[in-house]
Amino acid sequence: MVVIIVFHVLMLLLALGIVSRFISPQAVSNILGYVHKTIGITPPSLEKVPAIALVWIGSTVIIVDGCLFLLVLITSLSPAGG
């Protein structure tokens, strides 16, 4: 439970750091460049980096929360005796 809360707090702090430009856009652009090149898509321009980074953060949070929800759902539906 604590890990889930810490994950959400860190994602929120990362998003706030990107929006407030506490984390430099060039550093975020470099990280996004690596991610996009690994996947095989075009890296965003420096002007679009904050918005794209927020999309990536939001997507990550939704995927992690969805996996945790499905894990809880599946384990709660399985019979106790196995």
If you had to describe this structure to a student in words, what would you say it looks like?
- With 82 residues, the protein is mainly α.
- The chain has one domain.
- The protein is 76% helix and 0% strand.
- It is built from three helices and no strands.
- It has helices spanning 2-19, 25-39, 49-77.
- Helix 2 packs across helix 3 (49-77).
- The longest helix has 29 residues, at 49-77.
- The protein is elongated.
- The mean pLDDT is 92.
Residue share in helix: over 70%
> What Rg do the Cα atoms give?
17 Å
The biggest beta sheet reads: none
Question: Uncertain spans, ≥5 residues at pLDDT below 50?
Answer: none
Termini separation (Å)? Answer: 25 Å
